[in-house]
Write a structure and sequence with these properties.
By secondary structure, the chain is mainly alpha-helical. It has one domain (15-278): 2-Layer Sandwich (Creatine Kinase, Chain A, domain 2), CATH 3.30.590. It has helices spanning 25-38, 43-46, 62-69, 89-104, 115-118, 143-161, 168-172, 176-189, 198-203, 213-227, 229-232, 236-245, 248-256, 262-278, and strands spanning 15-21, 51-52, 55-56, 123-126, 131-138, 194-195, 211-212.
Length: 290
């Protein structure tokens, strides 16, 4: 009734959800503040959806572009993808769930829909089970790659929650709009996105006017590996490959080499299926120069 759920983003779901626990309002506030800050960077390490309908979409993370537009008929469901500045259960319900309940009321005549089910921000607070669910991460070619990125995101969040980058109060001050602007860039250009919000770069201790998103992740990865060496050691090689060789989306496009025939796309995705079966990275080999 609401969305005509036949298109992309409804019938397919190529994403990896990360659920992180909190105990009470105090823990929720710290975790939500940290997650809001990291969301714009996730496509720059995890984008894997550049092809749609046999064409290069112009987005390295086209899945997230669909995600943000699929429910535009009721804008409050997705908001700006980056959640509002809500740092308690009461605040969250007032700013998000109450508004959703109001906006879906005309469709919800039999009172079946719960606002909690249709909240579609990039990170969703689930107070019923004490967790925040991150939905921005594209799925990768193999479990090893998925878990490497999950480990990097989780340990980066640990550093933010423990105020190793900036203090909790400063994290809370960030509005959704500037974070969403960065997200729009990383959805389109992934690791090659230019981040030119100097204040955002300073969050992670980077004192530059602008920098490519992959260099932000390289900097964060070094800091996280230093802070949590045991947690990051098993994933070092995989993360280094992604940072140096590009996101899976970029590697897919590189191998396709501007040939978007059905046969060529099938050939590349058969290789990706082999990567999944064997838990191996999709590594692009450079052509030998004669």
């Amino acid at each position: 009734k609401m969305f005509n759920c036949k298109g992309h983003g409804w019938s397919n779901l190529q994403s990896t959800h990360i659920n992180l626990p909190f105990y009470d309002d105090a823990e929720f506030a710290k975790l939500h503040a940290a997650i809001r800050l990291i969301l714009p960077l996730i496509p720059a390490i995890a984008a894997s959806s550049p092809i749609l309908g046999g064409k290069n979409t112009g987005f390295l993370d086209k899945r997230m572009d669909y995600y943000q537009k699929n429910q535009r008929v009721i804008p409050s469901l997705t908001g700006k993808v980056i959640p509002e500045r809500a740092f308690s259960k009461r605040q969250y319900h007032k700013l998000i769930y109450d508004k959703i309940a109001h906006d879906i009321a005309k469709y919800n005549t039999d009172d079946i829909l719960d606002p909690i089910w249709v909240n579609s921000r990039g990170a969703i607070a689930r107070f019923d089970r004490g967790s925040i669910e991150i939905r921005i991460m594209d799925i990768q070619e193999c479990p090893k790659a998925d878990m490497s990125i999950v480990a990097l995101i989780v340990n980066t969040l640990k550093m933010l929650v423990n105020e190793k980058f900036i203090g909790f109060h400063d994290q809370q001050l960030w509005e959704a709009e500037p974070l969403n602007e960065i997200l729009q860039e990383t959805m389109r250009n992934a690791e090659s996105a230019i981040i030119d919000n100097k204040e955002y770069l300073q969050v992670f201790g980077i004192d530059k006017e602008n920098i490519e998103a992959k260099e932000v992740w390289r900097h964060i990865f070094a800091k996280v590996s230093e802070a949590y060496p045991d947690e990051m050691a098993p994933w070092k090689e995989t993360i280094t490959t992604i940072i140096n060789k590009g996101t899976l989306a970029s590697r897919i496009l590189k191998v396709l080499d501007n040939v978007y025939s059905e046969d060529n796309i099938k050939l590349v995705y058969q290789e990706l299926a082999d990567c999944l079966a064997n838990n191996e990275m999709f590594v692009v080999w450079e052509k030998a120069k004669l």
